[in-house]
């Protein structure tokens, strides 16, 4: 018998391939087998997802540094974890746009106020739809990660902390972002069920997200509290500067496109 994944020769008693580590599947796909796999991957108290989620709160350095240094079996791969987070964010957007449309009224009210305060003649934003930020939330998450990684890498690089390269900072920010997206998606759905406004929900989630970011960076880069806090402030300044520059470029391009489309 050969492994279906890498074609390595296997012994009849093997449960996992000793070449690629894949689990050997002996049974045909049936509802019971599929249910067992779902339980192993997502529901079981011992599964990788729950272990990764909990340890990213308890000991994020173990998950993140472990992955960077080569530990790839104990926790979910960083890209898979980020993909799960984006899936939950997609479910959140679907529920918001389908069942909680009133929670998005703040965007329409904001644009109505903006348009009424500006001249309606040759106003390129007169027909702007604020809901686009909700519909393309997943894409915004994906685009933001490289810039947040650039902010942390550049910030620590300028402070003399050059232990990790840009790609490794990308791993740090992917795990952090995935954790925040998962928590945000679940809490947003729960809060909206109880009728809270989306702006209130976002405000409740935003501040703890920054605190958690500081916690993750401190656990990874160590050091006394105030030294870590000073580094964090510098990193956040670097992050916002780099993100603002890129955001300004996209904003200018958006204005140009909007004016061209309006004309």
Automatic annotation (TrEMBL):
InterPro entries: DUF3667. Keywords: Membrane, Transmembrane, Transmembrane helix. The keyword Mitochondrion does not apply. It comes from the Bacteria. The chain crosses the membrane at residues 78-100, 138-159, 171-193, 199-217, 229-261. This is DUF3667 domain-containing protein. It comes from Winogradskyella damuponensis. The lineage of its organism: Bacteria, Pseudomonadati, Bacteroidota, Flavobacteriia, Flavobacteriales.
């Amino acid at each position: 018998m050969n492994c279906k994944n890498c074609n390595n020769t296997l012994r009849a008693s093997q449960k996992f391939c000793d070449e690629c580590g894949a689990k050997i599947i002996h049974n045909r796909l049936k509802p019971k087998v599929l249910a067992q796999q779902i339980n192993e991957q997502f529901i079981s108290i011992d599964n990788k997802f729950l272990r990764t989620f909990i340890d990213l709160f308890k000991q994020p350095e173990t998950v993140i540094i472990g992955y960077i240094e080569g530990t790839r079996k104990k926790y979910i791969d960083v890209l898979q974890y980020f993909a799960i987070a984006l899936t939950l964010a997609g479910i959140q957007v679907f529920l918001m746009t389908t069942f909680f449309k009133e929670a998005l009224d703040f965007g329409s009210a904001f644009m109505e106020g903006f348009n009424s305060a500006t001249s309606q003649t040759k106003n390129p934003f007169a027909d702007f739809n604020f809901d686009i930020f909700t519909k393309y939330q997943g894409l915004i998450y994906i685009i933001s990660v490289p810039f947040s990684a650039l902010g942390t890498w550049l910030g620590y690089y300028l402070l003399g902390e050059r232990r990790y390269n840009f790609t490794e900072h990308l791993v740090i920010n992917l795990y952090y972002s995935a954790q925040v997206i998962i928590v945000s998606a679940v809490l947003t759905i729960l809060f909206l069920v109880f009728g809270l406004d989306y702006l209130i929900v976002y405000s409740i989630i935003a501040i703890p997200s920054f605190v958690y970011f500081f916690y993750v960076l401190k656990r990874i880069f160590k050091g006394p509290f105030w030294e870590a806090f000073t580094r964090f402030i510098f990193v956040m300044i670097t992050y916002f500067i780099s993100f603002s520059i890129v955001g300004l470029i996209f904003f200018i391009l958006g204005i140009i496109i909007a004016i061209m489309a309006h004309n």
